[in-house]
Amino acid sequence: MVIPPQENQTIIVEFVLRGFSSILQINVSLFMIFLVFYILIISGNILIVLLVLINHPLHTPMYFFLVNLSFLEIWYTSNIVPKMLLIIIAEPKTISVTGCLAQFYFFGSLAATECLLLAVMSYDRYLAICQPLHYPVLMTGSFCISLATGSWLCCFLLTSITMVLLCRLTFCGPNEIDHFFCDFTPLVHLSCMDTSLTETTAFVTSSIVTLVPFLLIMVSYSCILTAILRIPSATGRKKAFSTCSSHLTVVIVFYGTLIVTYLVPSANSSQLLHKGVSLLYTILTPMFNPIIYSLRNRDIHEALKKCLCKKPGFLK
After folding, report:
1. Which residues are in coiled coils (predicted)?
2. Which residue from 5, 76, 183, 261 lies 20 to 30 Å from 304 (Cα-Cα)?
3. Strand ranges for 117-243 from DSSP E
4. What's the whole-model pTM score?
């Protein structure tokens, strides 16, 4: 839909998301696959949240941050996948400009928050392994809440800077976005205004929220690795490493997808390839996180067994 303004320009008020294919059979198959993935993501992360909430032994800083991460994954995926499923299977494949900007805002904010939360979790593991005697004093409940709250607020406020500039852009046509969600690059390319300031601002802010946390994670794990190697017994080293192996695996998967995204050249590769890469961080990574924590975490195993084996009172 377009509205003709006074100055012989056509102002776009909604976009068309082209999705993946115009072939119905392919779309039906994609719809079923992505729906299954979405159900797995939501159920897996909800399971982790519930396990932590109802099991008192899991009321520790590490699992408090894990609940934050799982809650983020639920919100992050729900911001993109339901609309993606709708445009795959239904017509018209449209989204309002306001809805598109809102989708990008939450996508950018939540992705940035995940970077900071992963850095906070690595700091928690650093204190637990490198300074175990001071850990209970340093990682208090109020400090954990401050770290989590600061991560959320910082990223949502930082993304707001880019959003203010995006909201000032005018979209005059065409109105087709060759993607399954409102990502930054295809969105700004549809503007009929100079977007250099917007793109520079987005690049600076995204670099801050990805590179700075990544460097903090690298420093933390360098100290952790050094401390683990100093432990004399193999059993002690294995036990120490097991407390951070799940988080380290999640970090590798998350930043691995980011690296793949940046390595794909925007000018020389097909849009289909960009969509495939986007699926890595919008669906696959959120689905892997609860699986990784479930498979590689003994505390989660014990909590799950406790819930599954619990008998009703009248059967005891």
Report:
1. none
2. 76
3. 176-177
4. 0.87
